[in-house]
Amino acid sequence: MSEVRTVGAGRAVEWFKGGWKIFSASMANWVLMALAFGVIAIVLSFIPFLGMIVLYLLMPILLGGMLLAAQKADQGREVEIPDLFALFKDASKRTPLLILGLIMLAGAFLSMIVLGGTMMGSMSAESPMPSFGATALILGLLLAVVMGMLFLYATPLVVFKNASAVDAIKGSFDACMKNFAPFIIFMLIYMVLSIIAAIPFGLGFLVLLPVVVGAIYVGYKDLLA
Fold first, then answer.
1. Is the four-CA dihedral 8, 162, 53, 169 of positive or negative sign?
2. Out of 34, 39, 70, 158, which could bridge 209 as a Cys pair, Cβ 3.0 to 4.6 Å?
3. What is the average per-residue pLDDT within 18-24?
4. Where are the domains of the chain?
């Protein structure tokens, strides 16, 4: 893997601008791709327990397909809806992406245990409700930051650098640590845009998902390509 480059905090805004440019190159196909992703996620969410496991396993493969589409758009080539499923046919990348999804699932499960244990401990200690709420909020934010650092660039490192799942996670964390300010700004922008996207019955995510994937691709190129 190549060494991590460091950039200024303001580059996070440029990543989103780049993501919008990638999205605007083929809006209709990107929206249909995001719709297909959303339908898969919704269908799996109706399957108790097993559906969530399958969704976590498939998520890096589907995200990887969208990253390949982002690369095509960046290179001036046409984005196609089947790009979403392109990596299901690539065994050399499919396997590490499945492992990456399994690690993501384990991380999410561990985060739930830590957060749940902290909440139960706060309740048993009969701490005041404001203190209890603040503790849960702070811990939740810290866990979200750590998970984001571990996995933000893990999928593109597997897809574009042929990294193993473990090496990709290490590379993502290293890139985010060395660029902590732009990483935090990236996450804050994403949170604000997510709130806005959720207002019109969640339909805004049909635009936000491709834009964020494009922004991740542009950020990856900036820091790791």
1. negative
2. 34
3. 97
4. 11-223
